[in-house]
Design brief:
Chain lengths: 126, 379
């Protein structure tokens, strides 16, 4: 499983990338593989509040419906609307074109307290 | 291998070749292989896919009495066919409920291989007797418009077996029963092969281009084809009439069959419900258990909300689809709302199947489905 070194991770299998004042969020390679072919993405609304550990949006595969959990507190500022017609991008490129949303974190410290790549790798190999 | 589950003769091959395994009907079977359910589904619609369906049972009846036993137990009339033919039929309870839907392979004059659903093998065996030979063989389903081209280079004698014909052939010295049957809506064959030769035959088919496919694709394929699945569209409290399968009922068969009296009553009273398709406006999958709000379609209070018996995403249509028993008055074209998990999905009632069966005159690349042009970029 691909676990990029430069990202931070939640224990719910989301990745986070710091981009200036914002954090880009998606699901990990491990998560997309476990879900199977994603055929529908219910995106969050721009402006919606994100609450760490709470459902942010939903992904549906041919076999199930799964929540994406907010990795930190904040506000959704942008969503990847390309996923409406091309949800398979989450499977094909989970750390790139399959990103889900951009969050403005409520605090500057939250990102730093997320797991690093090594910690996440241990979690999924456990 | 999970404890208590049965394994197909192809189990080790699946594990060694990237299959994700899942429990189904007491067996551990592939849900999908590395390419995933959507690619496997489209391979079956456009080329050829190969499925391990060894979890289906094989109950073998032999001897002079076998025909009579099956005729009095099963709803269809074997008198309409003969040795070398297959027939889809039902086993009912006295109340007319579908105990199992199954295929009978009339292999030779006094030999019948009855193929129940995995979890119903014991009840079928209890009803008709015979010998459970499930463990002795694998059953491989090769399905899709290119299935016969795959056979032409791997097992040429099997390539010319006609639709719903059954024949015993030899593949590299191994006896294989070939039936031109399946449950995907596509042309193809099902091959019953001795357990020890299963991997060799499977690898030959895969080597000739058939894509290994799992239960995930098998389910989306049968759903698009509008085919009922026991435990969903068939089961306790559901008769063949409810499911729109009156053609499996041989009303005038000498001696009748179990459940006939209950069905005659139901026929006299008129139909109660009708199995219908629901085509979503968007991509969002429908799921079994979602409720259908009929709105203006029926006078309020006359019908309880119907629940979807099956639902998923149609890879060919790129829409959510589902099946549901609706009151008989609800016509195709009616707009409904499908409700589940706090959401409402607009949908239209359509006739089944969602995707025409192969050979129904609309097959091939130019298929149009439920009046809707097929997207050319279905993912």
């Amino acid at each position: 499983m691909n676990v990029p070194e430069d990202l931070r991770y939640s224990s719910d299998h989301e990745w986070c990338r710091q981009e200036g004042d914002h954090v880009r969020v998606g699901i990990t390679d491990y998560a997309q593989d476990a879900l199977g072919d994603i055929v529908y993405v219910q995106l969050p609304e721009p402006g919606a509040a994100a609450s760490a550990g709470q459902p942010l949006c939903e992904l549906e595969s041919t076999k199930s419906v799964s929540d994406v959990f907010a990795p930190l507190d904040g506000t959704v500022v942008e969503v990847n609307s390309e996923l409406v017609d091309s949800p398979q991008r989450v499977n094909e490129d989970p750390y790139g074109e399959g990103w889900i949303c951009l969050i403005k974190p409520a605090s500057a410290e939250a990102f730093g307290s997320l797991m690093g790549a090594e910690g996440y790798r241990k979690l999924i190999e456990a | 291998m999970s404890p208590g589950l049965r394994a197909s003769p192809l189990h080790s091959w699946h594990r060694a070749n990237g299959a994700r395994m899942v429990e189904f009907g007491g067996w551990e079977m592939p849900l999908q292989f590395g390419q995933g359910t959507l690619a496997e589904h489209m391979a079956c619609r456009r080329a050829a896919a190969v499925f391990d369906v060894s979890h289906l049972g094989t109950v073998r009846l032999e001897g002079r009495d076998a025909l009579g036993v099956l005729q009095s137990n099963l709803t269809n009339d074997l008198g309409k066919i003969g040795p070398g033919r297959a027939q889809y039929t039902h086993l009912l309870g006295e109340d007319g409920s579908v105990v199992d839907d199954l295929i009978v392979w009339w292999v030779a004059e006094e030999r019948f291989d009855v193929m129940p659903n995995a979890s119903n093998t014991a009840s079928v065996l209890g009803a008709v007797g015979g010998r459970d030979v499930t463990a002795e063989r694998a059953v491989i389903a090769l399905q899709g418009p290119a299935a016969r081209q795959v056979l032409a280079v791997t097992f040429p004698e099997a390539a010319s077996v006609g639709h719903f014909r059954v024949t015993r052939l030899s593949w590299r010295g191994t006896p294989v029963t070939v039936a031109a049957t399946g449950y995907t809506g596509e042309d193809g064959v099902e091959l019953a092969v001795p357990a020890e030769a299963a991997v060799g035959l499977w690898e030959a088919l895969v080597g000739a281009g058939a894509v290994p496919a799992g239960l995930g694709a098998r389910d989306t394929l049968r759903l698009e084809a509008g085919l009922p699945l026991h435990g969903h569209e068939l089961g306790p409290g559901i008769t063949p009439l409810d499911a729109g399968l009156s053609w499996v009922l041989a009303w005038g068969k000498p001696g009748g069959f179990r459940g006939l009296a209950a069905l005659e009553k139901q026929r006299a009273a008129g139909p109660r419900v009708k199995l219908a398709g629901l085509l979503g406006e968007g991509r969002q999958p429908m799921r079994a258990g979602y409720e259908v709000a009929l709105g203006e379609a029926v006078p309020s209070g006359t019908a309880p909300p119907a629940q979807l018996t099956s639902g998923n995403y149609s890879p060919v249509l790129a829409r959510g689809i589902g099946m549901c028993f609706l009151p008989v008055g609800v016509a195709p074209g009616t707009t409904v709302l499908v409700r589940g998990r706090g959401q409402e999905l607009p949908a239209k009632v359509v006739k089944l199947p969602f995707v025409p069966k192969a050979g129904s005159g609309a097959g091939g690349a130019g298929r149009s489905v439920a009046g809707t042009p097929v997207p050319t970029t279905a993912s």
